[in-house]
Structures are given as C-alpha cells and as structure tokens.
Protein 1
Amino acid sequence: MRIVVLVKPVPDTTGTERLGDDLRLDRASSPPIVNPNDEYAVEQALRLVEAHGGEITLLTMAPAGATETMRKALAMGAHGGVLVSDDALAGACALSTARVLAAALATLEFDLVLCGIASSDGGGGVVASGVATLCGLPYLSYAGSVEVTDDRVRIHRLHATGYMVLEAPLPALVVVTQIAVGEPRYASLKGIMAARSRVIRSLSLADLGLDPAAVGGAAASTRVLGVRPPAVRGATRVVRGSAADAAREIVDFLDERRFI
Amino acid sequence: MAGAIWSVGEVADGAATRLSTEAATVARRLAEASGRESAAVLVAADPAGPAAELAGYIPRVITVVSHLADERPPAAVAAARIAALARVEEPAYIVIGATPDGRDLAGCLAVMLGVGVLANAIAVGWDADAGPVVEESVLGGRILTSSAFSADRGIVLLTPNVIAAEAAGTPGRVEAVAVDDVADLPAVAVLDRVAAAAAAAPIEEARVVVAGGRGVGSPAGFAIVSELADLLGGAVGATRAAVDAGWIDYSQQIGQTGKTVRPALYLALGISGAIQHKVGMQAAETIVAVNRDPDAPLAEYADLYVVGDLFEVGPAVAAEIRGRRG
C-alpha cells in the first residue's frame, strides 16, 4: 500500500525559539525537529508497510532547508519525500496550509494519508480535517489503533469516555495518536545512511498550479497584532521535613488559596 | 442576519457541554460589543434539550435535526450543515469550543467557507477596526500572541475554562431550521461505541487537576492521586510516562503530546516536570508538587515544592484535609 505521511518541522521544544520582528517564528533561533506527534504517524505507516508491503512518502510544507528535518523521518524507514517550498509561503495561515497540502496530495498516488493530531508550535490541530475535506477523503481522527484490511481502514477513535470504532473505504486520511503505536522507533545507523540517498522532490506553488497571491503569506487569513511573554511565576517555596509537617504546609497553602 | 456572531453547541450525554455555554457567552459578548446579532448553532439527532440550555446564554439558538449525528462522527455531519446554513445567513465569525470534535469541525468549516482559524484562544475581545482580537497561547504556552482576521470573517477555537459562562438577562428563542443543499462529507461509519471501564472526569474543564507521573509507580499507585482529586473536587491527570506504562488512560495525559490544561490548582505527584509535561500545565494558576527529587525541573516553577515521598505525603494531606473539614 502507498502511504503519505504529513510531516511538519517544528522548533525544538527545549530550544529558545522566539518570534522575529515580523511576528513570524524566527526559524534561525532554534534548530527544527520533526513534530513529535508526526513521529507517531510515521511509526504507524512503517508498521502498516511492514505488515502489508508498500511505500511511504513524506509530505512537508516548509522552507527549503526542511529537507534536513525530513531526513530524520526518512531515517526511521520512509521511502521518499515531497517538500512544498516557496518563498511566498512564509507566514502562510492554516487555511493556506490545508489548501497547499491538498493540492500536493492531488499530484500523488496513495491509499492512505496519515498525520499527527497537532503541531507543537501552532497547535491548532485544524489542518488535517481541512485537507481531508478539500481532497474529498474520508476523515478518521484521534486514532488509538489503525487496522487496514483489503480496501478499508478501521480505527478506534479515542474520546474522554471510551472510543468509537470507525470504518471507511480507502483512500482515506487518518489522524494517529501515540496510543496507536506507543514509542516511535529510533533511526538506526543503517537507516540514517539510507536516508541520505532517498529522494526528496521539491515542488513550488507554480508546480502545483497555485497562485502565491491566494495561498501565500500575503493572503494569510489571520494576522498577528502583537506578542508578549506569559506572566512570570513567583518564586518557588521549597518544603522539606516529615510527611505530617509537609502535609500541614500543603493544606495551609491550599487553604489560603481557598481550595479546602 | 449577515455579519452575525455564531457559536457552535456540542452535546455530551444529551446535554450541552459547559464549553458550549462558554462559547455562547463569548459570541453574545462580541455581538453586544459590536452591535451585531448572535446565535448558537446546534446540529444533533435530538437537539431540543441542549438547545433549551444554550438559550439561557444567547438570544437565538438555531437547531438542525440530523439523524446522521448519531450514525457518523459528529464533526463532519455538523460541518456540512453549518456550512450550508452559513452560506444562507452569512455570519461573520463562528466561535467553537476547542475539543477534538471542535477542532475537526473548525478545519472542515474553514476550507468549506474559505475563512481563517484562530486556535487556542484564551481571551477574545472586540476591536472596532480589527474585529475579534484573539489572545492565543503558542509554542507550548511560552509566547502569547494577539491576532485578528485579515477579512471580516473567521473561526475562533475557544480553549475550555478560560472564561466563565454567564447566563443572559433574558432567555433566547430556539428556532428549528431545515437546511437545503447539504453536501455531506465522505461517509465514515460508526461500527461500535465502547465505554471506558471507568470514565474519568475531563481534565480540560476541571478547576483542580491532581496528576501523577512516573513516581506513582503502578496503576494501584494512582489510588492516592484519585483520592486527593476527589477530596479537592478535581480531575485526575497524568504524564506521558504514566500513560505509556499503561497505568492510566491517554484521555488523562497532559503535555506536549497530550492535553493542555489551565486549572486554578495543579497538584503534581511524582512528576519531575520536564519540558514536555510543562508545556501542558504551566498555565495553571497555582502549582503544588510533591516529589522525592529536590532537583527536578518542577522545583524551578512550582509555587510550592515538597521534597518527599508521595506515598507518605499524599495520604497525610488527605488525612489533614479530612481533619480540618471535620
């Protein structure tokens, strides 16, 4: 089976990323990593291909330098990649991102599209359902398990009080959670070596027949007016001592703040 | 009523969710601030009960009856109908609760209506020139942005628990409408619904969250976490380590690959508070932690950090609370 996995490079969570003067993410401020939620989707794709055979193509919309981040996911075992990159896409909004990814998918052949639940930077979690809607694909989200049989996909859709069993014909788009796969695998040395020679095809907006004035940063449907850091937390009070003393301190503290 | 401000109702167990009433409150206030009309839209197989509840918060509740809402994932069913309705009534802005279904719905509606989405809103105000001004928490809560829509239309995804629902002075009217020209999205069948053995309280809406991490050590270890959550009227949360170990359900996971919570009180037991967890809970008003490691990251940002064994301190806290309450 042919699987496309949507992969987004995001700033390293432990980094010191900041917004630049243009109120866009200053991508030079921290090295990108593969969005952690997307690694579960890559892992899910690898397991399906191990079980059923097939190929995995990564699809990314990002600045040109993103090939380096894509190779980290290729090193897990994916077979190739498509990078949609265009200067006009800097500052693109979620709506544009969905439109561009949908246009890119239209140029690919696939049975299944997989992606993670949200990115760790913007964290809107709205692009996947937008892509599915634009592509006319059945959309199955929050998958706690993914099973493919012949020409259908079946998932457990997790929710707070249990799960729903959903099924749709292929091709379809499935949003994968960590519960479906547990830990994503580490790239082996062999995988890292192999990833170097995998082909990442670059596509521009012109290649996709998209008008930069319609989907680029200039056409963003939302705009940032200002940024500020969150309120600084006060100093930490550290308590040591017997359990009984510590418990009294905790309950006093909670009582002062009216939680008791 | 072109230019109106809508909210979307979500139903759980036959009732409107609390977040739906928060979204309705935001829509009503934006309408009041801008001199526009407001309405809540509810797509359900049996909307009467939840619609009556929502009418307490907003002047108009539009209901669309669809049996498909019980037969397919609800977001896709709602999206097709709300989009059809929006093409007729042309609302300017739509406020949706940021639940899994709400996010799915927002993504579908955004591309169907060709409008932008401002996600993870923690505050929404009105500006005469810019329209809704939305404060968002991005990059795991390390930066707050205020944003607006470029056009005079858009979708706001409202974070649970950031504004208190406030009933309207006079109850609104409920209006059942039939929608034409519904273009349903590709069918996804619901084959079965399985309830979790013990359905846990949702963590995103809880005022108090008591969470356990690696230090809790086992499923049985979560007994003290649950006991304190019960005593404090809160929900049980967990770190990814505890979820990966199978001690507790993924629905309770807080952090980078789980949920983001903003409770008034976060009580962390056996949690080191590494960055991947921190991004999901750092917006809590008050953070109290009990952990054996004096050098854990949480010792840097908790308000009160107790160096101790959670299995000694936890029960002592429970006993102390019971003692004071008599």
Note: The CA atoms of residues 212 and 269 of chain B lie 5 Å apart.
Protein 2
Amino acid sequence: MTDMTASPSGALATDARLRARLRQRKRKQVILQGLGLGAISFAGLMLFILVASLVSTGYKAVTQTHLTVEVFVDPQEISVDKLPRGGFRDVLAAALIKEFPDMAEAGRKDLRALTGVYSNGAQFRLRDMIVADPGLIGQTVTLTVPVSDPFDQLQKDLIKRETPQAQRRVDDRQIAWFDTLAERGMISEPINWGLLTNADSRFPELAGLKGALVGSFWALLVCFAISFPVGIGAAIYLEEFAPKNRMSDIIEVNINNLAAVPSVVFGLLALAVFLGWFGLPRSAPLVGGMTLALMTMPTIIISTRAALKAVPPSIREAALGVGASRHQVVFGHVLPLAMPGVMTGTIIGLAQALGETAPLLLIGMNAFITSAPGTPLDSATALPTQIFIWADSPERGFVSRTSAAILVLLGFLVMMNGIAIYLRNKFERSW
Amino acid sequence: MTSIAFLALFAISIIGYVWNITAVNAIRKGGNRLHSLGYFHGMYAFLVSFIPVFVVILLWLLLQGPVIEWIVAGGLPAGEYDGLGTGEQQLVMAEIKSIARGTIFGEPEEWKIAAAERLTRLYTLSSRAMLIAVVALGLGLMFLSRSKVSAEFRARHGVEHIVSGLMIFCATTAVFVTIGIVASLLFETLKFFDKVSVSEFLFGTNWEPQIPLREDQVAAEGAFGWLPVILGTLVITAVALFIAVPVGLMSAIYLNEFAPCRLRAVVKPALEILAGVPTVVYGFFAVLTVAPAIRAFGAQIGIDVAPNTALAAGGVMGIMLIPFISSFTDDALSAVPRTLSDGALGLGATRAEMVTTVLFPAAIPGIVGGVLLAVSRAIGETMIVVMAAGLIAKMTLNPLDSVTTVTVQIVTLLIGDTSFDNPKTLAAFALGMMLFIVTLIINIFAIRIVRKYREAYD
Amino acid sequence: MYDTSISEKTVTQNSIKFSARNVQVHYGDTHAIKDVSVDIEDKTVTAFIGPSGCGKSTFLRCLNRMNDTIDICRVEGDIRLDGQDIYDKRVDPVQLRAKVGMVFQKPNPFPKSIYDNVAYGPKIHGLARNKADLDEIVERALRRGAIWDEVKDRLNEPGTGLSGGQQQRLCIARAVATEPEVLLMDEPCSALDPIATSQVEELMDELRKNYSLVIVTHSMQQAARVSQKTAFFHLGNLVEFGETGQIFTNPQDERTESYITGRIG
C-alpha cells in the first residue's frame, strides 16, 4: 500500500506522530503477509521436493537394460522328454563364452562372474520359450533378456566407475566385459514394460507391479461392491427417512467418529474378526476390500448426505404434491439429481482406499507373492503395500522401482481425482 | 458350487418377478384395478425371495468352515488332537487341509489322510446341501409372493417396507462396525491382561516385547509398559504439530485474506494434492530424502542425529498435516461473518489488524477443533512412522533420538506370525485399544467443538 | 499547513463535505453505478433511496473505499472529501476510514466486551495516550451513541449480549469513537424493531449537529423523517437529488414519482 511520507495536504493529512504510527501499522501488515507467503512457499517447496525426489529416482526405472545374445539351444543340454527341466543355465553361459573365448577354460567362480550379467530370470525366459516351441532345440535363437541389477545400475551410471573396486558390486573385469558387450551392440535400454507386466520378484530387474495392480483392483472392486450400496442406503435413510430421535443421533455421531478412527485400528478389527473369527484367508484381496469398505463407508455416507441435502426441497414437494410416495420421490427424483455428487464422493473415497496401507499390512497383504492373483481369494499384494515391501528391500535397484511404483500409484490417484473433479464440474448445477 | 447357488438365486428371483407381473397383467385384463403397479408386484417377488436366500448363502459360507472343522476334529482318533495346545491344533488342521487340497509334504500319518478325505467329503456334502436349501427356500418364497398377487394387495407398501428395512440395516452398519472394533479389541485386550497386569501395562516404563518370554516370567520382567511407547508417539506428534500448525495457519490466513485470486487458484489445488498423497509415499519420502538430509545437516553442525530420528518422521508427518490444518482454518475463517471483518475495516483497521484482532480470535474455536483432529490423526498415523521411526522404545524427549510409536509397535508385532495366544500379539491389541480410546476421546471433543462453533455463527 | 482546510471548514456552515463527479463502478462485467455526481453537505443527513439493487449501497461504500475489499470491483471518476481526491494513490484507505466511519445493515459488534468494542478504533489509531484518556473517549462515544446509561454498569460484558437496537447504537458509538467527520450508515435500521428504529433515528438527528451523515434506506418514511437531502437512485443512475421535502412533495422526474407513490420498487 501507499507510503504516507508524501501525504497529500487537506483533510487526510495528519500530524507526524500519527503518520509514524501508521507506518508502523503498515509494517506489521507486511510482516504478516510475509509470514503467510513464507508458509505457502514452504508447503510448495515441500511438495516440489517430494515430487522431484520421486521423479529423479523413479525415472531410472522407466528403462531396463537388456542383453541380446545368440543362444545355441544345445540338444545335449536340453532334450524334449526332460522338459521343463534342462541345462538352460549352461546353454546361456555357453552363449557368453562364445563372446569371450578366453573364458572357456575358466574356473567356476570366474564363470559365475561372467554369467552374472544375466538376470536370474533369463534361464526361465529361455525355458518358457522352448517349452512353448520344442522345435527350437538344436537351433540358434536370439534372446533379449534383462541384465542383472548391478549391471543395470552400471549402465544407468548409478554405480560409478570411479568408485574403488572394493566398494562397488561389479569388479573391473565385469565392467570390461560389459563394455565389450556394449561395443558389440548387444546392450540395449528399452522401456521397462516389465515394471507393469511382471509380478513381484526378489530380483529388482524382474520385479513388476502386475500382482499389486491386480490385487488392488480386486480389493477396490470388493470395497466398491460393499461400501457403495451400503453407504448410499445409510445416507438416504439418515437424510430422508430417519426420525429425529436418539437412535439417529447415535448413528450420526458414530459415523462421524468412524471417519476419524485411525486406519490401523480397522486393520486390527479385520485381523481379529475377518481372519480370526470368520476364518477368511490371509493376504486375500477379498479381506482387504472388506476392510477398506469399512473405512470408505463413512466418506461415502457423508458425501451422499451432502449431495442429497443440496437438492432443493421444492423438488420433493413438487413430486409429493402429485401424489408420489416418499420412496418414489427419493428414488425417482432426489437420488438421480444427487447422483453426480454421490459419484464424486465415491471416487474420492475409493482413491483414499487405493492409497491406504496400514490395515492391509495387518491382514498380510505384504506377502511375497510372485504371481498375480486370479481371484479375490488368492494371496496378493496391493499397490501401496508393494511400495512398502520394495521400500524395505535392501537391493539398490529397488529404490528407483519404489519411486516408479509411487509414481504409478500417484498417477492412478490423479486420474481418479481428475474424474471426480470432471464429474463435479460437468454435472454440478446451482439451484 | 457357490457360483451355481448364486446363479440359481438370481434365476429364481427374476422368474418370480416376471411371474408376478404376468399375473398382474392377467388381473388387469379381467377389468380389475390394482392397488399397486405391476412393477411393484414384480419387485415384491424379487426382494422377498432374493434377500432371505442371499443371507442364507452368506451365513452358510461363513459357518460351514468352522462347523466342518469341528466335525472333523471330533472324529480324529482320541489322544492325537484333543490333548494338544491351540497352536499345535491349528497346525494339524492346516496340514489336514493342505492334504485335502492335494499338496502333500512327506508321508502324513494314516489318520490325517482319513481326516482329509472326510473333510473333502463334508465340503462336497455341504455345498450340495446349500444348493438344495437355496433352491427349495427360493422356490417356496417365490410361490408365497405369487400367492399374494391380488387387486387389493398393497405391493408398493410391501416393497417400500423391505427397502426401508434394508436402508435401516445399512445405517446401523456403522454402529455394528464400532461395536465390532470395540468387541474385537476388548476381547484380545482382556486376554492380554490375563498374562500381563493392567498396572504393569499402564505404568511400566519398559517396552521390550521382542524378547522371548516364558509365560511365568512376563510379569516379573515388566517388558510390557506402554509409557515409553506413548511418549515416543507424543514426541513425534509434537514435532509434526510444530511444523503443521504455524505453516497451515499462516497459509490459510494468507490465502483467505491477502492472496490475489490467481495465486489462490494455484495454491488451493496444490494443497489438495498434498492432502491426497498416500501416507506410504510420505514414509518413503522421509526415508529417502528427509532423514538423510537431517543427518547430513546434523553432521555438518556437529550434532549426532540418529538414523531414524523422530525429527524426520515427525517433520514429514507435519508436512502431511499442513493441508489438513489449513483447510480447517480456512473453514473456520470463512465461517466468521463478513460483517465482522467489514466492521473492523470500516473503523480504519488495516487488514492485518482486522485479521489478528477480530477475525482470528473469532475463528479460534473452529481452529482449535481442527488442531485437535490433527493431533488424533498424528497419533494414529501409521505408515510414515513404520517406515521412518525406530523400533526400540526409549524414555526420551529428545527429537534427535530414535523413538517408537504405538502404531509402529502394533504393525511390527503383527506382521509375520499371528497366533492369538502369545502376549506379543495380544500386546498389539492392547496398544490398539489404547490408541482407539485416546483418539476417540480427542475426536469426540474436537467434533463437538467444531459443531458448536458452526452453530454459533449459523 | 496541513490543517488549514480543517479550520476553514469549521467556520462555514453546511459546507460541501463530499463531492462526487462522474463516478462509475463496475463489478466484474456489471456496470453497477453509472456516471453519478453528487454533493454531500456537512452537518446534514443525506438519504439515498431507491429500489433494491439500484446501487445506493455500492455508492455509499465508495465513499470510504470499502469497495476496495472486493477484488472484482472497479471504481472510476472523482470523489473528493474536503476537496481532496480520496482515490488518490497517496491516500491510505485506512486513514480515510478513520475519518469516514461506517455503520452496517446488521449490527456487528465484535465478540469482545462493550468497552473493547468502543475502544477498538481509538486503540488501533493510537488516539489515546493512556488508560484514563481511553476511558474518557469510550464514555464520550457511548454518550454520543445514546447508550451510555444502559451499559455503563456492564462495560465488561460482551457486546454480543445486547439487544439488537442496543447493538446497533453500540456500533454507532464504536464508529463515533474514532472521531470521524462523516458517518455512513447502510440501512442501519433494517434489522431493528420499530422502537429500536425510532431510538436510532433520534440519535441520527442528534449526531447531525457534529457530523455529516449519509444513510442508505429503503424506507421512504425514514428518509422523510430524518434527512434533509435525498438522492434517488434507479438502475445505477442518480435520478434526482435535492431537498427532502421537495423530492417527496414535488419530484421532478417521473421515475422518482413512480417510486415514491409505490409504482416501482
């Protein structure tokens, strides 16, 4: 605002004491505004650092280093009648020895250092290929497989070559081999679709989110199937039909309190009741979904009630006036009009459920499971619990994968909230 | 078999619906006027057969497991099963079940294989019986509702009664959930207090649940005193509020009173993003970025900071709570009538004076309610502390040190094995009980303050 | 040198206090005030009348720049207080509002004690040197607000506990306490019962001795009872401005006549 040192003459002029006082008052205003801006900048900075630290570590997991080798499927090692067993590992080793002939006579330890380039999953990839098409035996196939985590990190410069040999996980010899392979054009770095299409694995280069995504999907489906009808039913009853008595008050207070109960307590409830008393299976998305439903229900009830409240009474009176029953009014007129608000609240509730971790940990959805669940009763992880597992893993390669998984999770959340906002803006009407 | 039962249920309900409607049409052709529309007669048939049968299926599925196990256990040779402890009984049962599924490890005893066969037979029997029960009951109800179709029958009232009943059931679920929480916590907590005395738990200053204890040693060791755990929780909560309250407050005040429209349009969604980030992400952020940063900073100025310092967990929790506090403050400030701030401005107060002398004092009750809710959030927050706080309980107030919290203990005690009879597992429930009580008291108090405050200005 | 105009104006009776020329107000896209020019005299009650939404309140709020608090509001034209442009960049609205007090439609005592309510203005403007000084200012303001006798024994009770009429007189006392030269009143009696209204109207007549009063009202009877000058606003235009008696008995514009006889409004 204006500094009053150059105060104009006339009615608004005042003596020096008051002007000095005014300056002081203005200074206080500036300080308060400064504090406010500082607070906002702090919050913004934290959000920025959060996103920046996730992106800067997570983008490394967008690609995965692969090795392309010509593999001769030696009939001596692999035969049709023994499938799916066979010397796949030796066949793969032979393919590398072909590249480095001086290693042919090397000892077992040295050979292991060389074949360490392969991901542990390479032999299974080869096995699956041959089981699918036994005709490949005796031929030479071109195989592109992920390299193991240390070499992936070497390629991405996460393991620095300057570091003394003793302090890094690949020795100088391995670096030399790797560089030679790279010179021969056998190393590539394609997009890491495995992150989405693989299930979990102990080996970072093979670990993916498929199991977690499917698990989260089942859990959310169960959560929706339970919390949506029950939440809407409860909200309609409380808002449109419930008599104003003690019972309604108790229910009302109950719902408000339930919305603020710590999530871990719901986990304890699920553990004791669903697993302990009902004997439902551990780690199952069904149980996870039921637990999440209990937590989502208050959110849906509260937002549905708000949406019903927003429908003006004139609509109800108009319908009642032409002789509709109260049920017909509510289900025929009020609920359809409130539906956009209900959907918005539900999607936001589901988005919260998708990010919820603690109760899922307690019912065992943090198990190590290497295949995606087929039904809601199979053991599974969920997206947030998978993040928790990876964050806890000691392998360096999991750091970038955790960040990438978080970005995937945040992507889903942004999408869901985006849909909710879109619905709200598109169908919102002012009465 | 289960899916066939559900299919049968749907089929019967839909047939009932169609049948009743055809019946209604026949009556109408006869020239009679009906009380209710045909649709309601159809819905009546649908609901009358669907709901009871659905409940029967659910109950059957829920109860058949325990009942069959009980029968199988009863049929086991004397001395092999009944003399065992609960844990061993569970193991035997698990083995029988896995044999029944076809996964056999080693050479199981003869009686186990027999039991497994019995188990499989009973399950088949049970699911067949269920299907028969479903069809019989469903058809019976269908005929019942068909027999009611007449010109005078008030099908609409019937349907509305059923729907109302369903809605009341939905509304009371919230109460059932609360009862379920209290019951399950109470049940396990009482078992815990059988093994550890109440005073030991409430006033003990030593928390070492990981040490394997012989049953008779528990009380003497005194390793289940929750004081250091709750103290750690409070330290982290204090750190979190120390960050969240001033930042949240000031940003809400600025956004509400000073910010230009365009800034508000950017910052509000940003705060909402911050509020929507799952806590597991904040936990990872604490471990990946904040804790190392604090440690590095501590090393630079020569202070020794524990690797999982309360400062990192609390600080990140504070960041998580910023949008929470700011949105409550925002609501509280907006609830103060505009006439009050106009009055102050009209007297020649600067905006800052108006905020500090009129607006803020008037909004304090609402803000206090919000801060209380934030406290309960911080106490109950789990993932950030599980990932970033420590595991060892210490009686310390130093935020640089590593402390543990109630929620961390609950999760670490329950991850992995969960047999319900050792004090370690039960201790988690006792902690959960305390957590529930503490947060419930704070919540009730806070919600009451917020509501009263809203009423004051409505 | 700053004080010359103040001393001059005390000599001349009924000098021009506010002079507004070609004032335009826009709310976003709405043109709320169209080209209004008016002179407001000292020691006079000027009433703004007109149908609701005609812009009379908006114009009133221009006089102490309360419209500044609304982001989308834009004021153009020339408004002078004692010859000085109040929208001049160098004029601080804070200082202006100390000189041009305002009383609002709904009584809005702060949730503080009666004493603190009245002392609020003097405190922020630093008008009192010590506690005794402040006590004196508060008492004088409450006496001027014609409420002293009712509240003198309970100055420490909250102002929100008073009745509606008392609250409004408290707000007037609060506005008077900063020693303004002009008092703006935005429908000050619309939330009050008839008895409280007549008390406030009496008070206005009393205040006229020391201040220039501008009131917005939609009660024509009230305008006729308390004002000496009346301005009739319609759809953002100032239709007619003149002696109250003349406006009510012999309006020049037919819109004014229609409004006064109850045909529009």
Note: The first helix of chain B runs from residue 2 to 29.
Protein 3
Amino acid sequence: MNSKQSVEALLAKEYRDGFVTPIDEDRVPPGLNEAVIRLISEKKGEPDWLLAWRLAAFRHWQTMVEPTWAWVHYPPIDYQAITYYSAPKRRAGTRSGDAIDPELLRTYDKLGIPLAEREALAGVAVDAVFDSVSVATTFKDRLAEEGILFCSFSEAVRSHPELVRRYLGSVVGPADNFFAALNAAVFTDGSFCYIPPKVRCPMELSTYFRINAAATGQFERTLIIADRGSQVSYLEGCTAPMRDENQLHAAVVELIAEEEARIKYSTVQNWYPGDAEGKGGIYNFVTKRGECRGARSRISWTQVETGSAITWKYPSCILRGDDSVGEFHSVALTHHHQQADTGTKMVHLGRNTRSTILAKGISAGRGQNSYRGLVKVAKGATGARNYSQCDSLLIGDTCGAHTFPYIEVKEPSARVEHEASTSKIGEDQLFYCQARGIAPEEAVSMLVNGFCKEVFRELPMEFAVEARKLLGVSLEDAIG
Amino acid sequence: MLNIDNLQVAVSGNEILHGITLHLPAGEVHALMGPNGSGKSTLACALAGKPGYQVTGGTATFRGTDLLAQLPEARARAGLFLGFQYPVELPGVSNAMLLKQAVNARRRQRGETEMDAMDFLVAVKERMAFMEMDETLLERGVNEGFSGGEKKRNEILQMLMLEPDLAILDETDSGLDIDALQVVARGINHLRSPSRAVLLITHYQRLLDHVAPDRVHVLADGRIVRSGGPELAKELEARGYGWLTGDVAGVEAR
C-alpha cells in the first residue's frame, strides 16, 4: 500500500466514522434505579445470582463519589439523564437466531468490519457490539473446534454460567471504583473468551464496539480467560457517531492468565473526540486490568488512544504468579480540546516478576495529555524489576503534557527505573522537510509516526496500519 | 537558471539584505563568499522559503517562474535544493524514509511514477558508497547522533538522490576534515552538468580548490561588493575581506 498517498487522502478528511445508522431501537427510558437494573437483567434473561450481583454493585455505587483526582475537567454528569439500555430492534419477520439485520451488516461493512464470514477479515474473529448488545460473532464454529469459547457476554452467561461465575469480578471487583461499580450494575453485554489449557488461539480475536443511539451510555464487560499454557491475541476497536452532546462509555475489561498463559490485548480507540471547539465527544472512563495469576504467565497491553473527548483509563497488571511479566505500551494523542489521563498500574506480588511501561503522549491544539502510572512492589516480591519510559511530544504551544509517576516499593531487592522526556516538533524540523519537498502535514505525520514506532511495533500488522492512518487524521490542522 | 534582482530581505523587521542582484546561468557554479553576518545564509534561507525571512523588495525567478510566490516544498519539488549549514535531527524518522518521501515528492511533481523499494535501495546504496558513508546510517534517525562530517555527507547524499536543477549549499564545507572535504567536493562535482547550476556559500578558498567556481561573489553587509572570476577567491584567501568590506556602494554581480 502506498502509505504516503493514503495519509494525504486522510488528511483531507475529518472523523470518518461519525455516521448514524437509521435503525429502530428498543430503549429503556433514561434514568438509573433498581427497577432499570431489574429490567436490563430481565431483558437478558439472567439468573438470579447475576441480578443480585448487579444490585449489590448498584447499592455500593450509590455510596461512592465520582473521582476527581484525574487531570481532566468536565461538567457534572447527570446519571439520571442517560439511557442505560438501547438495542437494535429485530425486523419484523426475523426471529431470534436468524440472520443479522442488513442495516447492521451495512454499518459494519462501512466501518471496514464485514460480518459475513466469507468476506470477514482473514484470521480475525469479531464480536460486534452495537450499543447495548452483541449483534454478531464470527468464526465461532471454527474456534469451537479448538475448544475455544468466544461469544457475547450474554451468551456466556447462558451457556457457561460456571465459568462466568467463577471469574466475573475476580480481577475488577464490583466495588473497585466508581465507574467499575456503575458498570457492574448496568452492564449490558460485551465479549467473553475462554482459551482451554495448552491451546494457542489460531486467529486474532476482536471486539468492535459501536455506539449508535443518542443520549445512551455504553457499558460493556469483556472477560478473557487464558487457561494454563494457552495463548491469545485480542484486538479491540471502537467508533461512534458525531453528536453535540457528550456520551459516557464506562467499560470493564478483565483478563486472567493462568500458569504459563499469554494474553496480548491491543486497542485502537477511535471514539468520536468532539469537534474542533470541544463540543461533543465520548467520555471514555474505562477500567482494564489483567491478572497474571499463574507462574510464568504474561499479559501485554498495547493501546493507541486517538479518540474520545476525555480518556480515563489505566490498563493494569497484577503480577501474582512468580516470574510473571506485565507490559504496557501506549500512544495517547490529544488534539483540539481532548483530554487524556491515562497510564497503567504494575503491581508486583510474585517473585522475579517483571514489568515494562512504554508510554508516548502527543499533544496538539489545546489538548491536555497526562501519563499517570503506579509501580508497586509488595514485600516478598523478591527480584521484581520494572522499567518505565514516558515520552511526551508537543505540537504547538497551547497544549499540555503532564507526568504523574507513583512508585511504592516495599521490597528492598526490587529494581525500578523511570525515564521521561519531553520534546517538541520544531519549525526548523518542519522547514527541513519542506526543503526536501515534503509538506508540513506529511512531515508532522512522519515525525509522529517516528515517535510512536516502538509502540506500533507491538501492534498486530493490520492494527498498526490502522493506527498510523488514525494519527494522520487526528492531527489534521495540528500545525498553523 | 536563477535570476535575483534587487532582492531585499528582512528578519524580524530588520533588513538584512539590501538589494542583491545575482544571475546564475545553467551549467555554472558560483561561489558566494563573505564574512560572518554578511547575509549569506539569509539569502539561502530566503530563496528556499524559510518562514520568518520576509522579502521586502525585488524579485527572484527560478527557470523563469517566480520563486518567491511558491511554498518551500513546491520550490524543492521544482528542483531547488538547499544544503543546510546546520542540518536538524529528525528523531525516529529514518534516513531512508525521508529520502524516499523526498524523492517521490519530486517524481510526482514531474509526473513520474514513484520509485519502488528495490530501485530506491539500489540507487541509495550506490550513492552512499560514492560518498563513503556507512549503510547503517540509512536506518538511523535523520542526522540523529550523526557526527558533523556525517551530517554534511548526508546533505550531499540527499542532493545526489534528488538530482536538483539548482543546488544552494550553505557552508557545506564548514567543520569538515580534509578527507571529508574531498568526498563532499566529489559529490558536488558529480552533480555538475550543463543543465544544472550550483551556488556554493562558503567562508574559505579551501572548498574551491576542489570545486572550481565559474564566478565568485563577495557579500558584505547585505550587499554584493565584488564579483569576479575564480582568481577573486584566491585574492580573498591572501588578503582577507577587510579591503572589500569598506566598499559599501555595491556592484552588480554577473
């Protein structure tokens, strides 16, 4: 592919996934109370234990206060004004279990995610989540041959309640934090994945999240379990229509890696970021955490955050198993009025646990970009090691970059290193490129890609291409 | 090729060039000499279109078209090359990447297809060998951690890849040891042809021992105070600039 032409073409575009799908919705009226939660649970035909779990989370949430420690600013959220459940209605004549609504197929085609298996992305199985529900999961049968369970969360509750019950909330508890508690109370769907012992998942698994309905929040849960000695690579993508009001996305992702298991979780987050004046956009308040439960297990997070009006997320690793490894690779970009407070937590509990943090922040326009990270080494985690590197790149002089590293070490044999740098794309660099026939927009894109390449290297190939394109689009007009 | 008439250039409101006239025909190499602060680099920057260099009067045409009306990248694509006195570093952007983008920008401008990866690699390696450069520099960030000599060789490498019609080389010889100077000179001589022109900006006679100029111009205080043949450079070497800088009347360079 000719990367240069595509970047140029993309530079001429704005947020490209901002369309609305005209589809009838089955909506619950706005507002949050026990009746709404009971209604959601009933719509999904859930067992009593799950309803009880939701209600307990809700009661706890009511006692909690929204966190204010993040370096982000927004007007108070009216939780009673949000619709907590909105699902596309099935067309007359189609029954449950029948083919997917053609309107939805068209939507995913337009997003570049064909759901018909013969056209589906080679080597990638997709669970498509549309507003509050999963509308399709591809390659389920192929995966089942390997004993891999990959389905919507709702289906997992029906078909594999014992697994869900065992692992749900075991990494991110229902009272973990304000947004996680809200999610536990009202989550509507999400993806579930179980890789049996010693199985190496033959294709990439992915969830594509789409918010379509107006004034609706999206609250999904993803639960991925890699049993002993198994391996899986998971991708997550997300987009939403352009709307003038802010919409809340409060998801929870839990990963569990048993002994010698490996999970690689990659995100390219492209929620609608709001317009150039800061109107609209998604509030992306997400809790992602993985636990390396078994010895010699490994969890690797890679995220490219280009969208959302506000990003508040800290994909983390609990390194419980001895010799387990946690990794966090991140590119976060804020442009116009976007704000990001993102980073990770690496909690070393086991012996000889290792973690690496590589965080790249890019700020342009009036964007505010904060890295916030915790490295914690518990007493007894002998030989634990961490290396953190946080680099910030500034474009223009009205943006901001901030770094908030927290280090708590209770184990004297631990080794923790932290490096940070801040640089700026200078006019001299742009002129140098111009004098070689390269336009400033291209030069910025080249410099930004250069800045991010260590992180892009961690992404699966198709995602890396996507990420590079997105950075090109997101930085449109970044230079005067 | 390049016709500059009564060009006046200001930086931050201060006029630096007070009316430069210089005609550089195809096939010739002209040396532009002069003491520090005389405005040599200002002329180079103004011709290449560096932001902040404001043309307050006069004209400059390149192959008959108004150079000053074009964006810097358009000037480059049209065949103007500026060799920088202080090449900047572009961290994370590989030398190969920059070269390829630059070469293809110029090819597109000429309506040619882009160079494929294989042809590009062959062409660049051949020129690197000619410039006695280590091939590992190709994958390094542009000028990132390069020595002074490597940076200057890299400028000439870019020039050889881009094959410009007009090369303006701003003190490419400064900070080079004698071996590197010879390599750089070889690169410049390689580019010389009846269809191309070179403006060599330099302090010293040294480079001109290896790249024989057709004309020599002396710039002092923002004016060309003397023009002559190659012998003028030798005279400057012997006598310094002092005897010329008192002469502020200015002469027309041809």
Note: The interface with chain A takes residues 48-51, 71-73, 76-77, 81-82, 84, 87-94, 97-98, 101-102, 104-106, 109, 114, 141, 158, 162 of chain B (CB under 8 Å).
